[in-house]
Design brief:
Layout: E1 15-16, E2 32-38, E3 41-46, H1 48-51
Antiparallel strand pairs: 1-2, 2-3
């Protein structure tokens, strides 16, 4: 059974894309849309279509 435990909304300006994270060429970021802060926490935003391939 699938369920949703939390839904968050982020402003585009508050999301840092993979290219701006300085991860380097050794890290595969195809599944990573970016990172966003939610209060004191950092949320990882995944491209679910790419992740499930």
């Amino acid at each position: 059974m699938d369920s949703v435990s939390e839904v968050l909304t982020f402003k585009a300006a508050g999301i840092k894309g993979p290219s701006s994270l300085g991860l380097g060429a050794d890290i595969d970021t195809r599944c990573l849309l970016g990172l966003a802060k939610s209060g004191p926490q950092v949320k990882i935003l995944l491209d679910i279509d790419q992740t499930l391939r």
